[in-house]
Design brief:
By secondary structure, this protein is mainly β. It has two domains: 83 residues, no CATH class; 227 residues, no CATH class. The chain is 9% helix and 26% strand. The protein is built from five helices and 15 strands. Strands 4, 5, 7, 9, 10, 13, 14 and 15 form an eight-stranded mixed beta sheet that branches. Strands 3, 6, 8, 11 and 12 form a five-stranded antiparallel beta sheet that branches. A two-stranded antiparallel ribbon has the order 1-2. The chain is globular, with a radius of gyration of 23 Å. The chain starts with a strand and ends with a strand.
Length: 323
């Protein structure tokens, strides 16, 4: 990767991603660019100088002359900050996607948890589940610990909430439809795990099928409102009265202002992690816990992107296996 000089000329440097090149290489005439996006990952908007001595023509000159990234093909490393077009130019706030840490069923482990340290922990087999004492028989599933062997509606899972996270606007107001996320893209390394519908865990086909797995083995899942139980409308808050102060807590909501949707899903360990230690010993690490047992673990992330706004959030996740 390199930077391109942007001090004078307008630059267009375009390449196909690895996925695009693979489709072009088929040579069957099916390759067609149907969608594209713009990003501004390299731009620092704090460089805007409204008090420049030379006048308004120079206010944004430094931004316009910022070197830009040379195009590169790794789709997981590009376009982290996509530009969006909105018809309403009077917006004071833009929505975010926020990890829900309120409900005990979907909050991550706390910092004192020796196995998780703030991430969600997936236990990859029954031996590990027994050793970490995650089952309900232990008096309740431990917060942030996900039994990753069999999907269950009782399992801990991951949930994110979307909306305007501000106290300046009542949560009872309806979020502008233009800002409401109805589709999400979830990216996960397919070597480590897979996703399932936690609200319909006992039904056949509850494990989600990836929409696409790229050359780096990153699986992309597309979840849409009214398809499965992954995307739900969030519950509005209370405008006035004694309950207004706790409006964000209704239905375990974390967004303080107008709310859009929430996304929830369960995580299962991939077959290779369940049946083998190869990936753990090759790219993972080892630890000795307070119970004097040894454990392998692999740290990874789950990336969630809103299709409407392009907002992204990375959620740390750890896959744990008892030695």
């Amino acid at each position: 990767m390199a930077f391109l000089d942007n001090s004078g000329d307008i630059i267009l440097d375009a390449v196909l991603t690895d996925a695009g090149r693979a489709r072009l290489a088929k040579g069957d005439g099916s390759f067609k660019i149907a969608k594209f996006a713009f990003g501004d990952d390299e731009i620092d908007y704090s460089s805007y100088n409204a008090s420049h001595a030379s006048g308004s023509a120079y206010y944004d000159l430094e931004i316009l002359q910022t070197p830009v990234f040379e195009a590169f093909t790794n789709n997981t490393s590009t376009m982290k900050s996509k530009l969006v077009s909105l018809t309403n130019n009077n917006l004071l706030y833009l929505p975010i996607i926020k990890l829900n840490t309120v409900g005990t069923s979907f909050a991550p482990t706390d910092a004192s948890n020796q196995f998780g340290s703030g991430s969600h922990v997936v236990l990859v087999d029954s031996t590990t589940i027994t050793a970490v004492k995650a089952p309900i028989a232990d008096g309740g599933i431990k917060t942030g610990v996900i039994p990753g062997l069999i999907g269950s509606a009782d399992n801990n899972h991951i949930r994110v909430d979307q909306g305007l996270d501000t106290n300046e606007i009542s949560p009872a107001l309806i979020l502008d439809p233009e800002l409401k996320e109805t589709q999400y893209i979830v990216e996960l390394d397919s070597r480590f795990g897979k996703l399932y519908d936690v609200s319909n865990a006992d039904a056949a086909g509850s494990v989600a099928a990836p929409s696409y797995i790229d050359d780096d083995l990153i699986a992309s899942y597309y979840f849409t409102s009214n398809v499965g139980n992954y995307v739900k409308d969030s519950k509005p808050g209370v405008a006035t009265g004694a309950e207004a102060d706790n409006g964000a807590q209704a239905n375990f909501e974390t967004i303080n202002g107008p709310r859009g949707t929430n996304l929830r899903f369960g995580v299962l360990a991939a077959t290779d992690l369940v049946t083998s230690t190869y990936l753990f010993t090759t790219i993972g690490s080892a630890m000795t816990a307070n119970d004097n047992n040894g454990y392998y673990y692999i740290d990874s992330t789950i990336r969630i992107s809103g299709v409407t706004t392009g907002y992204k959030i990375d959620i740390p996740i750890r896959f744990l296996k008892k030695q």
